[in-house]
Amino acid sequence: MAEQRYCATGKRKTSIARLWMQAGTGNITVNKKDYNDFFGRETSKMIIRQPLELTENMGKFDIFVNVCGGGPSGQAGAIKHGITKALLAYDVSLRGVLKKAGFVTRDSRIKERKKYGRAGARRSFQFSKR
Asked: Are 17 and 65 within 8 A, CB to CB?
């Protein structure tokens, strides 16, 4: 019988992470690299580990991630969201813990588009009375 794999998609800002989770030794592979090599900042690595540490599943799963779009911070957040969704597919009883920590909700804050007649999204051009 084939081993059970859990698929999930995580998103944050403009980053999208597709991931597959299966029973294993705790390897996290991001774009065919170890996540320690892919992410430079310790904060990004910590963000990725958060859902696993919270549910005490660290070292139980091998996770394979394809992530694209955005920057390192957004990509780490997208992977965290994806891992959370995969854990929910694995065990629905973890939902209460993950929901309380705020991991289930997608962080939908994205850059607002620039409007015509404006310098930015909302900023007006400099006004001159005379």
From this structure: yes
Strands 28-30 and 33-34: antiparallel
The helix/strand/coil state of 55 is: coil
CB 83 within 8 A of CB 17: no
Domains of the chain, start order: 5-101 (3.30.230.10)
Type of residue numbered 108: S
Distance of alpha carbon 74 from the chain centroid: 7
How many other C-beta atoms can be found within 10 angstroms of the C-beta atom of residue 95? 14
Helices (H), 55-101: 72-90, 95-101
pTM of the complete model: 0.89
> What SS3 state is found at 110?
coil
pLDDT, one tens digit per residue, over 86-126 is 999 999 999 999 999 999 999 889 999 999 999 999 999 99
66 in Cβ contact with 20 (< 8 Å) = no
Q: In 3-state terms, what secondary structure has residue 92?
A: helix
